[in-house]
Amino acid sequence: MFSERSSATPRRVSRRGLLRTSVVAGAAGAVGTAGTASAAAQRADRAKNAFRPGHSGVRLRWLGVAGWELSFDGHRVLIDPYLTRQPYTDSDGKADMTRRLQVNHRIIDWVLREHLTAAPEFILLTHGHWDHLADVPYLLDHPAWRDREINILGTETHLHLLAAMGVPGAGRKHRPVVVSGDEVLRHPLQSSDKPSRPDYTIEVVRSLHSQLGGYGFDPYGTLTAPPARPRSLGDLVEGGTLGYQITVGDRLSIMFLSGSANFAARAVAGATPDVLVLGASGHAAVHDYFERAVDTLGRPPLIVPSHHDDLVTALDDPKLHDTVNRGVVDRLQQAIGADGRVLDPRHLEWLDL
Q1: Domains in the chain, please, with CATH?
Q2: pTM score
């Protein structure tokens, strides 16, 4: 059912029940054995309420690195839209945070002309590093988007960094929104004179950054005020990491733990998303990362890996797909077993959910 197809014939997936993030007292503290024990009951419940595949009307597209576009019913939401893919290492292949920030105007203009042909309603930031946030100011000030009203969700640090980079910009309608976790936001806004159900909701969840072989990551830090304008990769600090669950009516829920290869288990315990977009690289110091994520989230029927390409090969390079670590697809499939399916996304190609 999930064979490789062209961008004109997207792959399709099944859907499950609605967002359920509320848990009974104490359940969040018992993620391990209790979470695994409840997974069988959750799977049985989903089996009774299974929907036919490919009928949600929701589409997902990988923008490379940890960037995603979600599209449905004329709505668009972007997560971590980073398109420049600049070099970030020194001559020895080690990360060099002193490198000057770059913005690849050519590739961004091409992507907006050929792929991101409509402005999003929301940009969701998972954290403040360059490969997540650096292109956002240019995107927001692009002629195709500058006169639209775009909501940008992120932590206080993320919005301070954007402010230092000129966001929202003089005369712009863009709306930076500070979030920290546990917010459940609706779109459109609730009318005061005519109560209505939202077209979709965005739930913000606290998350964690990847921890590599040295048990840490760089650059770290938080901000309480806008700094000087960022000039180097190291100026864009993490500033807290977030995840997001988007629920489209009663049709589909998608959890984006997509920006890093770590998560806060107690923050998402009890959620049972239909689709899990999971950061897949850089978890050498994180114990049983894939297995714990799968079990904590009720063994989602569809998992899509994220943040598992080389970060630098241009989006229009024919060899781009050769840079993807496809070994994570096999490892994730082993973790989910017969309970679900793992897709191998291709850059800028749609998946029908």
Answers
A1: 27-352 (3.60.15.10)
A2: 0.88
